[in-house]
């Protein structure tokens, strides 16, 4: 005789390895399903109540985008998010401090308008909409590497994975060539430009030809008279 039992799974949030494995289907779905084209990740606290194609139409196809993620409703700065995580006890304080200090040494700075078009350094991560193309696959792998390397709080690694790793992988922008007009050469004796105005020369030559034609016409009239 058996009795139904209710199991409760408790995850130690201080174990980064356990939480990092939860990020595999969230960030590395293209490694599990190589033929996937689009995906919509939704956390368990939310529920999808509309057609998924409408979600793709609204956030990807109409925007001509390949990646969309929900922005944090309150915080935009990684440093503020780290302090909030420590205050809420979502991860070990020492691990978060080491995580942020390492990023600071590598150039992590508070969020500012200089980081546009990124409108926030702190995503919520509860909704991720992706088209699986090489650039989004690369970013997902870079993001997962940071999560696996440090804390499993993926909000703290998003901006570094984008600004430091992804932009370094992209080819540099080539500045357009600026063609300057040729400089004028000045005559050392008179101080005037040595460049001749070809149009004025053509005008003078055409005027002299017209005067010669007029003179020939007058002589012809005189001979006829």
List the helices and strands and how they pair.
Blueprint: H1 16-27, H2 29-32, E1 38-42, H3 52-61, E2 67-71, H4 78-88, H5 93-105, E3 123-131, H6 134-149, H7 158-169, H8 198-224
Antiparallel strand pairs: 1-3, 2-3
How does this model look, in words?
This is TOD1/MUCI70 glycosyltransferase-like domain-containing protein. Residues 184-196 have a biased composition (Low complexity). Residues 184-225 are annotated as: Disordered. Residues 23-164 form the TOD1/MUCI70 glycosyltransferase-like domain. By secondary structure, the protein is mainly alpha-helical. The chain has a domain at 16-169. It is 47% helix and 8% strand. Strands 1-3-2 form a three-stranded antiparallel beta sheet, with helices on one face. Helix 1 runs antiparallel to helix 6 (134-149), helix 4 runs antiparallel to helix 5 (93-105) and helix 6 (134-149) packs across helix 7. The longest helix has 27 residues, at 198-224. The chain is globular and about 40 Å long. Residues 1-7, 173-188 and 218-225 have low confidence and may be disordered.
Defining key terms:
225 residues, mainly alpha, 8 helices, globular, disordered N terminus, TOD1_MUCI70
Task: Write down how many β-strands occur, each being a DSSP E stretch of 2 or more residues.
Answer: 3
- Summarize the amount of helix as a percent range: 40-55%
Number of contiguous helices: 8
Classify the oligomer: single chain
Strand order of the largest sheet: 1-3-2
N-to-C order of helices and strands? HHEHEHHEHHH
| Rg on CA atoms, Å | 35 Å
């Amino acid at each position: 005789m058996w009795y139904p039992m209710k199991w409760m799974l408790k995850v130690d949030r201080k174990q980064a390895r356990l939480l990092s494995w939860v990020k595999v289907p969230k960030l590395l779905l293209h490694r599990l399903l190589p033929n996937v084209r689009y995906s919509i990740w939704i956390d368990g606290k939310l529920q999808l109540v509309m057609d998924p194609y409408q979600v793709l139409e609204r956030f990807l196809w109409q925007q001509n985008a390949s990646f969309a993620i929900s922005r944090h409703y309150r915080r935009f700065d990684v440093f503020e998010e780290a302090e909030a995580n420590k205050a809420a006890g979502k991860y070990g304080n020492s691990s978060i401090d080491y995580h942020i200090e390492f990023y600071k040494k590598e150039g992590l700075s508070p969020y500012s308008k200089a980081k546009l078009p990124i409108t926030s350094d702190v995503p919520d991560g509860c909704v991720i909409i992706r088209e699986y193309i090489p650039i989004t696959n690369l970013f997902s792998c870079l993001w997962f590497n940071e999560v696996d390397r440090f804390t499993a709080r993926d909000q703290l690694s998003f901006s570094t994975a984008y600004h430091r790793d992804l932009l370094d992988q992209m080819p540099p922008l080539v500045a357009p060539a600026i063609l300057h007009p040729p400089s004028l050469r000045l005559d050392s004796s008179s101080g005037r430009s040595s460049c001749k105005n070809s149009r004025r020369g053509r005008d003078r030559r055409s005027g002299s030809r017209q005067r010669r034609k007029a003179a020939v016409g007058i002589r012809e009239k005189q001979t006829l008279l």
